[in-house]
Specification:
By secondary structure, the protein is mainly α. The chain has 3 helices and no strands. α1 packs across α3 and α2 packs across α3. The longest helix is centred in the N-terminal third of the chain and has 38 residues. The radius of gyration is 17 Å and the shape is globular. The termini are far apart.
Length: 106
């Protein structure tokens, strides 16, 4: 029985890792399609992804707040209003998690 429990734990850990990698890949895709146009260059005052000094005080901001702020400021379209060009809250969360993972590695 203990070996079966260990096998189950290993299986769950592997599934969790695969899920985390899929989530990061989804975030990367959203970043590349939507966020990179400003965060790669600093356009419109966006913090550049590769410049850690620009992110010092930003890593604790909630993704939902960033999503709302970007919608309010006109940087993004809401998927509910513009399904072809808009971004959902889940997509914003994935992109933000991806960006935070890059920034915190530096």
């Amino acid at each position: 029985k203990p070996s079966m429990a260990l096998a189950a734990i290993c299986l769950l850990a592997t599934a969790g890792t695969a899920r985390a990698e899929a989530d990061m890949d989804a975030g990367r895709q959203v970043y590349e399609a939507t966020c990179s146009r400003c965060h790669d260059s600093g356009k419109m005052g966006a913090p550049v992804l590769d410049d850690m000094s620009e992110w010092t005080d930003r890593t604790e901001i909630l993704w939902s707040d960033v999503h709302e702020q970007h919608l309010d400021d006109g940087f993004l379209d809401d998927a509910a209003e513009n399904p072809k060009k808009g971004i959902t809250a889940a997509q914003m969360e994935a992109a933000t998690n991806y960006m935070v993972s890059i920034v915190t590695k530096k």
